[in-house]
Structures
1.
Amino acid sequence: MEKPILSVPPTSSAQAIPLYLGDGLLETLLPELLEGEGFSAVFIVTNETLAPLYGNRLAERVKGARLLVVPDGERFKTLETAASLYQQLLEAGADRKSVLVALGGGVIGDLTGFVAATFLRGLPFIQVPTSLLAMVDASLGGKTGVDLPIGKNLVGAFKDPLAIVSDLEVLHTLPQIEFRNGLAEVLKAGLIGDRHLFACLEAGEVEQLKEIVLAAVRVKVDILSRDPLEQGERAFLNLGHTFAHAIEQATRYRVPHGQAVAVGLRAAAWLSERLGFASDGLLARVERALSRLGLRSAVPEAQVEEMLQAMQYDKKRQQRQLRFVLLKSIGQPFITSEAPPEALREVLEVIREHPGR
Ligand SMILES: NC(=O)c1ccc[n+]([C@@H]2O[C@H](COP(=O)([O-])OP(=O)(O)OC[C@H]3O[C@@H](n4cnc5c(N)ncnc54)[C@H](O)[C@@H]3O)[C@@H](O)[C@H]2O)c1
């Protein structure tokens, strides 16, 4: 059987999680894994887009597997969808030796992981991420959960999968816009912890997909190995995200998450230079990388006041100071709560304008 490419540190269990990465794993390795472990039943959870592309075929390949299909979209990452899955599992006679397979992007991964953490107080599950974002980010680190009407990811649990199986071939059907969303997180990984990865992206080199995905995975895995439960440096993974959340709120989620993260990375680089933490040149390099990757670097449609308000609301909810992940240089992130209000207003004005204007 294919060997794991690396081990992901656990967050809620004692066992490191094997991560498999390669081409064609849905056809070869995954059926082998599912049939070899002595599960009482296999339930493949996927959505209406991915069922005809991959779900049906996988269910046919694995003896006795059942497909559970939910509607596609973040708006279905809810307790209601989880409840409908509990119901279907009960009706099909699932027990604690049954396994759930999360076949999809981050939405399916989060939702299925949450059901696996809670149904019958927990049953095993396997992450099969099909989007670039889920491969480099959402499938790693054990966070699962659903949204509430008032906000994203407000109910959840840490739950480690038994394995993570990333089949690069499925990325061929991923819509271009979703691929770019994932690239924003890959760029973030390069900025946090891999100068070589960043340099490739800056040069627009994304053809070596396996190397790029693996490099981004390694950055997150390294951080998880030192801080699995987000007591310290796991927060580096939020580089650009305080700005991204403000942009998403101020534009009523019309700017997709990955594009908001892209602009947020530019904001973080700008603020790092403005506050004298990073030397000249960082911002220009980030702007070049964004442009090479076809990512947004400005959000003219977001109002400064609304972004500021979103940040204040976030701060109030968490009853703490606003904290920013900034960069001393590429590969050297740090956390600060010392961003003066005038610099914050300035940076929000900057990201409404395209670079070079
Ligand atoms: N748990 C974590 O640590 C973590 C980290 C980051 C993000 N997330 C969560 O991940 C979610 C975002 O994930 P996402 O960007 O993958 O979004 P997504 O799951 O909505 O997938 C994006 C779209 O691409 C489609 N798709 C996925 N793979 C495809 C493929 N191979 N071919 C064709 N279409 C495909 C999906 O059906 C969907 O329409 C959010 O809910 C976010 O909160 C979780």
2.
Amino acid sequence: MPQRLLIIGGTRFVGRHLAEAALAAGHGVTLFNRGQSGEPLPGAESIRGDRRGDLSALAAGRWDAVVDCCGYLPGEVAAMAQALKGRVDRYVFISSVSAYADFRQPNAEDSPLGVLADPDTTVVDGDTYGPLKAACEQAVRQVFGEQALLIRPGLVVGPHDHTGRFTWWPARVASAADGEPLLAPGHPEDELQFIDARDLAAFVLHAVAQGESGAFNVATLPRVHQFGDLLQHCVEAAGTRPQVCWASSAWLLAQQVSPWDQMPLWLGEDPGYAAFQRNNTLRAHDAGLRCRPLGETVADTLAWWRALPAEQQGFPKTGLPLERERELLSRLTTAQAS
Ligand SMILES: NC(=O)c1ccc[n+]([C@@H]2O[C@H](COP(=O)([O-])OP(=O)(O)OC[C@H]3O[C@@H](n4cnc5c(N)ncnc54)[C@H](OP(=O)(O)O)[C@@H]3O)[C@@H](O)[C@H]2O)c1
């Protein structure tokens, strides 16, 4: 049945895919955003506004559900929830698996959530992002109770990903010449877990239609994907044949390579993150989450990246500069020969 959806955000990555899927399914879509991160898709109604400011532009509407795609501070999420109380039947909050307190063991939806050292902080950084998401969830629950649907995605990947973290790998492989050494982190059997933004969008629409509530971890099933498979899919999609050189985590750490940022998706040897990519996602899969084949995600992400204007194909915040990678490969060859 067609729904009327309000999307807070909806022009950039996760929200954009959600808007696209909702429009394709015949739902009515209204986007609320500032107009800084892209244009609304054709067919969507657009309301301009800043969630940090005046929300009165939302006071005339009525929707079946809101999907809040850009909530990072509990005060702002609480204000949005209050403004929409009585105007939407269901509040869907895009949270994160980072909301959990601890990643040494796999987390299920009832695992303890992170707690802020300073409950009044408005600084969103590596330390506060997760516990702030947990506090945002609580703010939604306080206003919407059983009508709150809390979506905790793992790493979100696919076309339009502005972070470059996953895209780094297909792009790096595609940039390599046949036979060129390419540095790979850890071990080919290291586990990876993520969610294609299009599968996330489909699940959100499905969960809303089913009247689901409560929390859902949304990602591939644990132990399905490994780093070696990812690079193999990158090779197949790119049609290049680099020489993949695996460097152990211990060796990379000794070279001061920083996990996640400089070698995307690699988490090093930190026991505090041992199960970060092994969360329990059974509740979402039982409720209808379907994840497309990894090869499709890789190929589509590469095609999207290749179609970007050259000035947008860089990775300013992600990955190793090529010079540094070459220097490390040379040292690795020496270390392995001795
Ligand atoms: N990327 C991941 O791996 C990952 C993993 C887990 C969870 N998540 C969660 O997924 C959600 C979506 O991520 P994303 O990267 O797609 O989102 P995002 O880049 O934070 O959100 C961008 C969207 O929100 C709008 N927006 C931003 N600030 C706004 C404001 N003050 N008022 C109104 N609209 C505003 C933007 O439009 P304007 O700029 O035009 O306003 C744009 O449409 C986030 O909540 C994130 O925490 C992401």
